[in-house]
UniProtKB/TrEMBL annotation:
L-glutamine binds at residues 169, 175. This is Glutamine-dependent NAD(+) synthetase. Residues 1-242 form the CN hydrolase domain. Pathway: Cofactor biosynthesis; NAD(+) biosynthesis; NAD(+) from deamido-NAD(+) (L-Gln route): step 1/1. The lineage of its organism: Bacteria, Pseudomonadati, Pseudomonadota, Betaproteobacteria, Neisseriales. Belongs to the NAD synthetase family. In the C-terminal section; belongs to the NAD synthetase family. It comes from Chromobacterium piscinae.
Length: 530
């Protein structure tokens, strides 16, 4: 028996388009001798449809999509989709063969943590599904089911000889290895081999990284699809086990994070129909990495970079920006903001009379730049990519309606220290980021001789505290006990808390850590808990 794992990139809500993709994949699989086509979780609708799942008209369209796939002959298709029975909704997988529906499985374990809200939408399933293909009994599971013993054990007890799992598992660092280990635990507990298909593509802040695989009864990876790319991975089952097949090499952590950012930008821009991307280039490392990602995602012809110097912008910032533009070949403009700044200051002079200069004047420069970028965006239709990183989002080292103005925050979940690592990794592929951009001390260049570390702890300290507090949920006391200076910890935690209102107004961006400032960060803005 041959199983084709259909690792592909559906579009949320494009049910007819996704159904056509599944039909095309089924025909390609049949041409290669496959008996079963296994699709990802909610492949027919894309993951996750969120509150589209609350609309009855959505399920009527799902039914039409299933009817299209059901017309296939010569192959068994296991398609992931939502279904509604009475007043209950289920995350389902239906087994279709030659115009017949052999059964429907309902996901048993519904995740309701991190970025997941499945208990908002679905009722958990209560029974395993095992069907027969070529004399082999095949058990079906969906995503979170693999992370728990009970669904796999019940499937084994129902007579399954192998398990197939449909998945839409959002990426974060080290997630591929974690998934394989969880599947390996289920193999050890049940004695059954597992075929695991994973979705690809970007959906708002989520990225799906592919890397579908099959484990034999010994828990060894015997077939491995590439990460991030669409692929039809063929797995043969003979002599009661999966046989060795194609094994693609998997990326290391830095390559994986970088490619996730590329996919996130590519699909957010592409699936939403924007003609390209626009960003402010400062000569600093964050905008340099954002520009590199944008070009890798969209191509240089769809990216427009704008340098907006002031009297505080160092000459080397302009020089390095021009250097990077020459390397990448994107459209480039320079717009001097100081005359505009002086006009604003003249208009505000009566209201500011007798008041000392402070961050107000710095923020005004950022807001002028944001206004210019948004005007260019309105005129061209291109989406503004913001360039702030996770360290800045944590501490509020960013300006509302200034550098936060835009539609997609590429580095929103990338700590500053990781920004440096990703730039160095990208230059190992091709030398696109000038070395001086990477080695210069970071600066917002909004006042004379400004450095980020004038007002923040060193990024190595800041990012370590942030990771412990945000991603690991450690308390300030726990972090201090781990050896971090009390003043640094209290300062970072305080800045995190008082800047919640900024993060709530920030654009979405791709999630690459176990906890980003998106769907999996839901703190009240008005909050007196300490």
């Amino acid at each position: 028996m041959r199983i084709a794992l259909a690792q592909f990139n559906p579009v949320v809500g494009d049910i007819a388009g996704n159904a056509k993709k599944i039909v095309d994949l089924a025909n390609a699989a049949m041409a290669q001798g496959a008996d079963i086509l296994l699709t990802p979780e909610l492949a027919l609708t894309g993951y996750s449809p969120e509150d589209l799942l609350l609309r009855d008209s959505f399920y009527r369209e799902v039914a039409r999509g299933l009817d299209i796939i059901e017309q296939l002959d010569g192959i068994t298709v296991i398609v992931g989709h939502p279904t509604k029975i009475g007043n209950e909704r289920f995350n389902a997988a239906t087994v279709l063969r030659d115009g017949n529906r052999l059964g429907q499985y309902h996901k048993m374990q519904l995740p309701n943590n991190e970025v997941f809200d499945e208990c908002r939408y679905f009722t958990p399933g209560a029974a395993p599904l095992v069907f027969e293909q070529n004399g082999v009994k095949v058990g079906v599971l969906i995503c979170e089911d693999i992370w728990h013993l009970e669904p796999a054990a019940e499937t084994a007890d129902a007579g399954a000889e192998l398990i197939v799992a449909l998945n839409a598992s959002p990426f974060h660092r080290d997630k591929i290895e974690t998934r394989q280990q969880m599947a390996r635990f289920r193999v050890e507990e049940t004695g059954l081999p597992i075929a695991y298909v994973q979705m690809t593509g970007g959906q708002d802040e989520l990225v799906f990284d592919g890397a579908s695989f099959a484990l034999n009864k010994a828990g060894d990876v015997v077939a491995q699809a590439a990460a991030y790319d669409d692929e039809l991975l063929l797995v043969d089952f003979a002599d009661s086990d999966f046989q060795p097949g194609k094994r693609a090499a998997l990326p290391d952590m830095l390559e994986s994070v970088y490619r996730a950012l590329v996919v996130g930008v590519r699909d957010y821009i592409g699936k939403n129909g924007f003609p390209g991307a626009l960003l402010g280039l400062s000569g600093g490392i964050d905008s340099a990495l954002t520009l590199a990602v944008a070009v890798d995602a969209l191509g240089s012809d769809k990216v427009h970079a704008v340098m907006m110097p002031s009297r505080y912008t160092a000459d080397i910032s302009v020089t390095d920006s021009r250097d990077m533009i020459a390397r990448l070949g994107v459209k480039y403009d320079e717009i001097e903001i100081w005359p505009m700044y002086e006009s604003f200051m003249a208009a505000l002079a009566p209201s500011f009379q007798g008041l000392e200069m402070d961050t107000t004047e710095e923020n005004l420069q950022a807001r002028i730049r944001g206004t210019l970028l948004m005007a260019l965006s309105n005129k061209s239709g291109k989406l503004v990519l913001t360039t702030g990183n996770k360290s800045e989002m944590t501490t509020g080292y960013c300006t509302l309606y200034g550098d936060m103005a835009g539609g997609f925050a590429v580095l929103k979940d990338v700590a500053k220290t990781l920004v440096f690592e990703l730039c160095r990794w990208r230059n190992t592929v091709s030398d696109v980021i000038p070395e001086r951009i990477i080695t210069r001390p970071p600066s917002a260049e909004l006042r004379p001789d400004q450095k980020d570390q004038d007002s923040l702890p060193p990024y190595e300290i800041l990012d370590a505290i942030m990771a412990r507090y945000v991603e690991d949920n450690q308390s300030a006391a726990d972090i201090i006990a781990a050896g971090y200076a009390e003043a640094d910890v209290n300062r970072v935690v305080r800045l995190l808390k008082i800047n919640e209102y900024k993060r709530r107004q920030a654009p979405v961006g791709p999630r690459v850590t176990p906890r980003g400032f998106g769907k999996d960060w839901r703190y009240p803005i008005t909050n007196k808990f300490s």
